[in-house]
Amino acid sequence: MDRHDLVWNPWHGCHKYSEGCQNCYAFFLDKRYGRNTDEVARNKSGFDAPVKKDRNGEFKMPGGSNVRVCMSSDFFIEEADEWRKDAWDVIRARPDLMFSLLTKRAERISANLPDDWGDGWDNVTFAVSCENQKRLDERMPHLLALPAKHRWISLKPFIGEVKLDPYLADGKVEWVLAGGENYLGSRPLHYEWVKSAYESCKKYGVNFTFGQTGNVFVTDGKERRINDRTEQCVQALRTGFTLPAVDIEKEAQNIYDEKAAKKAAFEEKKKNK
Ligand code: SF4
Question: Which protein residue's CA is at the shortest distance from atom 6 of ligand 1?
């Protein structure tokens, strides 16, 4: 994605739903802070974050940004049925942002769209998270049947080979994102699976990003452990599986620069405390 990426969590909490949830990072992080992830709760202070303004009357989330929604939950989880109408109101009020709604509960989307959805809103892109062929076959028919202006597929965590061709042929999917698993007990990602997904995207003119290898990446039949997140991103980039193609060395330098900038900002903050 080339837009500035922001996160909006109108609610927090989820329930494990399929194989891809096994090492869910929301559960991992909540465990650290003694929070029960299975308790789904509306976010009190951040529910209306996209429409919040600063002292100058400007939106805190700048126009043109990409907003990833529900990174610690699922936008279509049952408990949120009573709050979702308010969330749609927030999305409707910001046509200048692109809201990315990623879900594993694809079969719940169509019954939970707003009344004025029509043939889709320009500022919403739907995605289903498909960790293997079984989940791809279950969820993609729902995604493709939806009235929607934008669609993409998340192969994260990518834990089993998938055949994407049947789901890309009609030109409805704009982008595929692939990535390996992290956190405790990571399952391996195979180079060949990524290559196959990349080649399907190339065949049908769909954008493709291999975001990171995950902790365990298998190349030439050998498992490699890559613990450092920055290295995971750079190693993924160096496979060349990006569509449209990018300048790999320039992008790799950007990743290193970004990491250095974040570290410097963190040190500065620590110093000023
Ligand atoms: S659906 Fe997403 S947030 Fe919910 S348990 Fe699964 S991986 Fe975690």
Answer: 21
As a whole number, mean pLDDT of residues 223-243 equals 96
Torsion-angle region of 125 (φ positive above 0: left; ψ -120 to 50: alpha; else: beta): beta
Percent of the chain with pLDDT over 70: 99
Residue 70's alpha-carbon distances to 90, 185, 234, 235, 257, in angstroms, are: 14, 24, 26, 28, 28
CA dist list (Å): 187 to 22, 181, 214, 219: 10, 6, 9, 14
- Ligand 1 atom closest to 14 (CA): 4
Name which residue sits closest to atom 8 of ligand 1, judged by CA.
Answer: 24
Per-residue pLDDT of 166-207, as tens digits, reads 999 999 999 999 999 998 778 999 999 999 999 999 999 999
- Strands (DSSP E) contained in 9-120 are 11-12, 41-42, 66-69, 98-103
